[in-house]
Amino acid sequence: xxxxxxxxxxxxxxxxxxxxxxxxxxxxxxxxxxxxxxxxxxxxxxxxxxxxxxxxxxxxxxxxxxxxxxxxxxxxxx
Length: 78
Known about the structure:
Strand content: under 5%
Structural class: mainly alpha
Shape: elongated
Order of helices and strands: HHHHH
Number of helices: 5
Number of strands: 0
Radius of gyration: 19 Å
Helix content: over 70%
Distance between the termini: 63 Å
Oligomer: single chain
């Protein structure tokens, strides 16, 4: 693991975070890993926001919250 982290120019903890899917890991780390294993062509698929169901759900929730708050404030005014 240490050798691969060194080739990627990242720390072992960062490599572990990447393997665990930690969202704080930079896309550049993923790109380097894909390049090193000869799978760089997969980058567009990995980085496609439309394929990230968790992010899409979070975005929908974020969009719906202000609308719900707006409706609540309208009901209070009535």
